[in-house]
Amino acid sequence: LGLALYASSLCAVSGTTFPYHDYCVIGAGPAGLQAAYFLQQAGRDYIVFERSHSPGSFFALYPRHRKLISINKQYTGKSNSEFNLRHDWNSLLSHDRRLRFRRYSHDFFPDADTMVRYLEDFASLLKLRVQYNTAIIHVTLERNEQAWNGHYFLLTDQDRKNYKCSSLLVATGMWVPNVVNFPGSEYVEGYETVSINPEDFAGQTVLILGRGNSAFETAENILGVTNFIHMVSRSRVRLSWATHYVGDLRAINNGLLDTYQLKSLDGLLEGDLEDLAIVKDKKGKLHITLRFYLENRNFSAGIDSIILPQDELDNFATRAPYDRVIRCLGWKFDFSIYNRSLKLMPGKGNIKKYPQIKPSYESRGTRGLFVLGTASHSVDFRKSAGGFIHGFRYTTRAVHRLLENRHHGVPWPSTVYPITQLTNSIIKRVNEASGLYQMFSVLADIILLRENATAFEYLEEYPVGVLAELEMQTGRKAPNGLFVIIMEYGRNFSGADKDVFYYNRAVGEAQHAWQSNFLHPVIYYYKHLPTEREMRLRPPEWPLPRPDAIHHIVEDFLTDWTAPNAHILPLRRFLENCLSTDLRNFFAESCFLFAFTRQKLPPFCQQGYVRMQGLMGSEGLRHHAVQAGLLKDYTPTDFSGDRPPDSHHRSQDQLLRDHVIPVRPLQHLVNAKDE
After folding, report:
1. Torsion, Cα of 564, 567, 572, 575 (10° steps)
2. How does the annotation summarize its subunit structure (predicted)?
């Protein structure tokens, strides 16, 4: 009977018409709203489902002590909005300048309530299509050969209403608390519910489980009122300034390190939390012991029947009882709402809290399911900023561009330039681009060379993990080689055990640029697009396979790569060597001379002077060129007869102004030489 009822319900469902959208987005946090913005700008059919009554519900509760650790730099000395996004870690991408976070807060570390207000304005001002108070509780597949990906996604909300979509974008973030179960774990308070009033901890002894920013944030709040605080975790403390990973411990929260190292009672310990046990005595004090001491013993019989570590080792580190134990172990992805048919599986090892996805941010198990925002951080965990707003705002845009090409035939945006603009284009991007800067080693600019290297096509912020699939994913062709521009730290500079403040840590000479430690641009040159096999076999810790040629632009203290000799000249010579061409700019006189003395004109002369393009000469420009040593001074020094001294200058100026006279014969001469 049960099987018959189930079958009949399936038939009823299959015959029902559900509300349909091309794109369904689950979650109206920063990533969900960012995806909605790009879909709306492209005129796509989409809907965003949000379980709360307003966007950004995570920030309404977290961080518990209300101070964000994402910087909000008001001033950079520059007015370039793209550059300024390098130091604005809270704004989402949009065309509306009102939606820059610095207009909402002047604090370097803003309040979380300001983020909630910002996200509400982002959704309302841009009129994003968000359906609030809709909690998606189940997601499954409906096979259909006519669907974009061979199936539809069926979503069910808390009221048992169903929705259908062709592509599913999961932007729910990481909100399920990580919990470790061990004997006595019922006495542990969670970060999500513990009091944030320091007075509630006055005169108490506290043990904190965890060693991330939430743990240190909690400790910082009660540091001045407790007897002492101990912190236990399985790994050593990792400082963000050493690892260059913004998810590690930030300086704003590290007061406990001072009190520990300056011997003011607080301390840090390392140990596997699953080996611990907590025993509560008659006075309500919590004693830390080890799980193996409880084997074959009656745990409920009380502390008197249990051997504690200090009974055998009288200087056991945690022998003093605690008043409170607080769990601050972060969050994990909620897999519970996804049917097995979606094959959305947890990662392995240190990324098991994230779903398994490809470098394109698409699920490994289901085509058409993309994971955005914090939950997509497995792609660059502990490497870049993909788990944070200032990183995933760019990866979300990259996913949108992939979808535009796949489903709507819109190729990845690109711009075609003459080859003479190659050096300038690279210098401009490495000095301004915020996506390259924030998502270092993950997003890269791609330069596709045209035949005979006469022009190039520039693609911005493409995921390097799918470089082998570039032609399929972007709709652009790469038959003539390519350059990949990416930002990197030095290979051996980052790590929890690294001293990043050692003497002579910076490199200043261009010839030693490959030894640069700080973030700097790196240009890879490939004669052919790398294959998937080459991507798999790339050297450890390399973002890309071994190139045919590679160039490091030397690190710069000001992150300003515009120095003519240290930055631009070495880059130009590298590009010239790769392309076997001359990328210099020339005055008209030089191009005129080359036409008679060389078999092949430089590209600048071919694309400019010969086509009657370029700057018109003048006496001031000529004088400047002579002083700079770029042109010889042909000005006569001796005048005779009645000829005015400046008549020679006037004749030269007249020749420059009448540009048709010298250029047309030159065109015939060049053609004749070619023949």
Report:
1. -170
2. Interacts with SEL1L. May interact with OS9 and DNAJC10. Interacts with TXNDC16.
Q: Which domains does the chain have, with CATH numbers?
A: 20-176+332-402 (3.50.50.60), 185-329 (3.50.50.60), 413-579 (no CATH), 588-624 (no CATH)
Cα–Cα–Cα angle for 303, 305, 308, rounded to 5 degrees: 65
Q: Which residues contact 368 (CB under 8 A, 6 or more apart)?
A: 148, 149, 151, 153, 166, 167, 168, 362
pTM metric for this prediction:
0.87
CA torsion, points 607, 609, 615, 621, in degrees to nearest 10? 130
End-to-end CA distance of the chain: 90
Q: Specify the amino acid at residue 661.
A: I
CA distance 281 to 307: 13
Q: CA–CA separation, 70 vs 90, rounded Å?
A: 7
And the tokens for 266?
Answer: 């607080």
Tokens linked to 87: 């130091």
**Averaged pLDDT, groups of 10, the chain, 675 residues long:** 41 65 98 98 97 96 95 94 96 96 96 97 97 97 93 96 97 94 92 95 96 95 95 92 92 93 93 89 89 68 69 82 95 95 92 96 96 96 95 98 97 96 97 97 97 94 97 95 96 86 90 94 97 93 95 96 96 96 88 88 87 72 78 62 48 42 38 39
Cα 147 to Cα 118, 165, 274, distances in angstroms = 37, 9, 46
